[in-house]
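Consider the following assembly input.
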Amino acid sequence: MHADPKGVLTGVHFLDGDHACCEGTLAAGARFAAGYPITPSTEVVERFAWRIPTVGGLFIQMEDELAASIAIQGAVWGGAKAFTVTSGPGFSLMMEHIGYAAMTETPCVFVNVQRGGPSTGLPTLPAQADMMQARWGSHGDYGIIALCPNSPQECFDLTIQAFNLAEEFRVPVMLMLDECVGHMTEKVVIPEADGINIVPRRFTHKSPEEFRLFEPQADGVPDMVKAGDGYRFHVTGLTHDERGYPNMTVDTQDRMVRRMQTKLAPLAGSRAFFEAEHLEGADVVVVSYGITSRVAQRAIELARQQGVRAGKFRLISAWPFPAAHIAELAARVKAFVVPELNLGQMVNEVERAAAGKAAVIPVTHAGGTVHNPETILKAIVEAAR
Amino acid sequence: MNETTLEIPYEIPADAHNPVEPFLRMDRMPHIWCPGCGIGTTVNCFTRALLDSKADLDKVAVVSGIGCTGRVAGYARLDSFHTTHGRAIPFATGLKLSNPELQVVVYSGDGDLFAIGGNHFIHAARRNMDLKVICVNNLTYAMTGGQTAPTTPSKVISATNPYGVFEPSFNLVALAEAAGASYVARWTTYHVKQLARSMEEIFKKKGFCFIEVLSPCPTLYQRRNKMGDGLDTMKFYKEVSKVRHGARTSECELTKSGEIVVGKFVDRERPDYFELLRAQMTESLGDRYAEPEVSCSEC
């Protein structure tokens, strides 16, 4: 279906990533947001609070991130498309409810505008050091989706994508900005509403008597209902059976927890989101994401000017990790160079997928600014030797 | 049970053992609560209140946190949510805001609502969010084995205060009133008729409503403190409770064996969250303000 025109600010704009992300939520059909102020992410909900009263929806500033991250899930079960926004320290507090959303298969979006950590760290400066936390931060086994925009335009586009994927797979989706992308101002083109594809909630057509809330459909994802429609359903964070009732047996645990991961398998393979360039005949492939991919772009151009056969593989969906694509590349390149604004996170995934078939060279950075392209260039040139 | 209140759609099956069966998920019985526990009594009062209020049960949702009382959501045959520890109120806030026609009842314990969830409680009361909060207060963390709660009175022996509690405890009704609740009452599980009536009252009252229900935990509180079993606790409640409607909540503190003041303490009119929102937005935006349409069946 198409976007509801009420939320779509069609036109050519000059926006920063945070504001573009907000426009993405409105275009995607989000009419509920809950948040708690934290730099450098607050602009997303500030704009939402400014825009939403004339669109027809609600923003509530909650008492903390724990509250914000569960209020959105109450709203989802009430029938809303909903999201919250935060940065590192708040993201840590939200881990509890990322787990709850995964366990209860509640479609919702968590925006994390990453800053330097650990703890209070660098409130106003960039990092990409929450990538593993996004995947593994809550306890137990579960799956999530994480998208990494590298421009304000992508902040708009991928926010819509995040909502669509959340609905299709019934998972929490992490939108992993970084301070640079969040505060970078560029041209953002917002299309007409009928040019924006929206995935509607997978509401069941079954009657309350036939319907079971956690019974997977052919794609492994269960259909959904909302409160107030007479289904008298039950949702719990306990291990539950297809009816949604607590059922703490070994069999139920295995069936449920495995399905919550396997339902996302297409996104690791045929439906992975990435941008590739110069991979044909490449000796070295630079794997990067977010703001670092823009620095890497310059390094790749410089390397190619020097005659090094360098290619680009930009992760747009970091999770599920596109391991099959990296494995296929590993068989035909010398090395991967992996720059990121952390001390080595996604590089471990690249190494795991490459399985020793190609060298994997991290280019680490503790955060606070972006890499110098020369640093990445040096790594590329050395890797090509 | 008064026969005249049993109107359609509350048909009681011919083979029902108990008139409250239509309100419960009978396929989940037996429940997990111990003999002598008071939570089941409060659920019974809750179903009677639903019956008497003639609420549309499709539009009533129960939200619980974690703990023994947190299991109420799983037994109520309503849209029901068993959330995370302490977070029933913020979940309920989102549910109510997205779907205002729902009557949202938060049903949870004292540890859940006032220790880990204390911050959420005071803020929901401050906002006068239209939530009906029922706190079953057994003065302990029962599910985890009888540890000290913020409500445990001084001198009580608990699993984490084996030599006696010395921290001061919260007076929940005073806290609720100070934070802004529109309605505040306290009963014990001995006061079943009064409790059911209070529950019925809050279904009809807008804004943040709070009922504290003192309830025995014979397994982990009474036994450890040599206070007898569930029946002994009923006798204790009968003996020490004093009904004082309108009492000053600051004078309603609970002690280990002293008087328990019960009754309705607060029943006041304050604009609720939605009224405040609408008034402010209309004042600032005039005709440009669009009524929230948060919930959607097609999108």
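Residues 171 and 253 of chain B are 5 Å apart (CA to CA). Ask yourself how this observation constrains the way the partners meet.
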